[in-house]
Structure formats: C-alpha cells, structure tokens
Design goal:
Blueprint lengths: L6 E5 L3 H12 L5 E5 L2 H9 L5 E2 L3 H9 L28 H20 L13 H6 L6 H5 L5 H8 L3 H8 L29
Parallel strand pairs: 1-2, 1-3
C-alpha cells in the first residue's frame, strides 16, 4: 500500500499485468510500468535499478529471488493481490494423457492425505485407499491403460504431493516457499483429492 509512485517491472501480456492494474486502481495507487518481454528481463530491470518493484505470481517471484546473487537483498511482500492457480496442463484433445496427468496428481495428493510416503508405501495395511495407492487392490490402471503399479511407482520414486513440494520449492530449498494454500484441506489449505478408486 506504500508503493504509490513506484516503478514496476512487469512482463507484458500476462495476467499479472492486469492484476496489478486492477489492484492499484481499486486502491488508488499510481505506478509507472516498466514493461518487459520475459521474466528474466523483469529481474534484470529490477537488479539494474530500472524499477523499484517487480511483480509476478508468488512462485515466480520466489524463483526469481533465488536466482539473485544475494536473495536476501529482496523481499516478497506478504499481501497477495490475486489468485493464480498453477498446475499441470496437457494439450487439448489428448484425453488419455489428460487422464494420466490428472490421476497422477490425484494419487500424489491422496497419498499425502493418507500418510503414504515414498518411505512407507511398501507397508501393507488394512486401509483400502492405501492398498489402492500401493497398486495392491485397484483396477484404476485398466482405465488409464497403465501397469497395475502405476501409482505405487509414482509415490515410490517421486513421493506424495508434500514430499515433492518440499523437495523442489519448499522452505528448505533456494526457492523457499511455504505451503500456504497448497496445504491439504485437512490442514487449512485448498488441496483435496476425489475418492481414489
């Protein structure tokens, strides 16, 4: 709210550009746009002092900050001004691949919710959902045209959603993101998986 009059590096043609305009207009904040073509140019402009601020979605900002020689020299402001959901995408019209990608994400989220990790997936249980995730009691592979161990292989090799998040962009990585809304619904986030059957 104190950035009125600031110059802002922003990538042209992005929803971020529109979100900033909406937020600034709604809050009576004026700013000077320094429009660039790529996120790398946005960071270059910021580092060179051509802009006071750069804007993007939180994960992109964290990635750009991690690329700086001194990441501690920049701060990501805590007030998020828009919702920009990020997730896996596939080419339209490839329904089989779409289903595989969708069910992969569902399996990873369900595994985290069920307490299944890359370390404990080999433990046999009496929980039907866990047994389906481990590939020991499911026919889901038939619908996806995959091997019976497809979800087991993903969880064993990649981990559940939380393991993958923490390993790649979590608080103990150079990107340093907290889970925030990417937490399970049972822990106050927005992630949930439909019934894994």
């Amino acid at each position: 709210m104190e950035m009125s009059g600031a110059s802002v590096c922003i990538q042209a043609g992005t929803t971020t550009e529109l979100n900033l305009a909406d937020w600034a207009g709604a809050n009576g904040i004026s700013y000077d746009s320094v429009v660039v073509e790529t996120s790398a140019q946005s960071l270059d402009g910021f580092l060179a002092g051509r802009c006071d601020v750069l804007t993007s979605d939180v994960s992109q900002l964290a990635s750009l900050r991690a690329a700086m020689d001194d990441p501690d020299a920049a701060v990501i402001l805590g007030n998020v001004i828009s919702k920009e959901p990020l997730g896996p995408v596939v080419r339209q019209g490839d329904d089989e691949w779409f289903n595989i990608v969708k069910w992969t994400l569902i399996a990873m989220i369900q595994a985290e919710e069920s307490g299944v990790t890359s370390e404990n997936i080999d433990t046999v249980t009496t929980n039907p959902t866990v047994e389906r995730l481990a590939g020991r009691a499911s026919q889901t592979h038939e619908y996806l045209h995959l091997s019976p161990s497809w979800s087991y292989d993903i969880i064993k090799q990649v981990g559940n959603y939380g393991e993958s998040f923490e390993r790649n962009i979590g608080v103990n990585t150079p990107i340093g993101l907290s889970r925030g809304p990417n937490q399970l619904w049972t822990k106050g986030g927005i992630l949930y998986a439909p019934a894994f059957r």
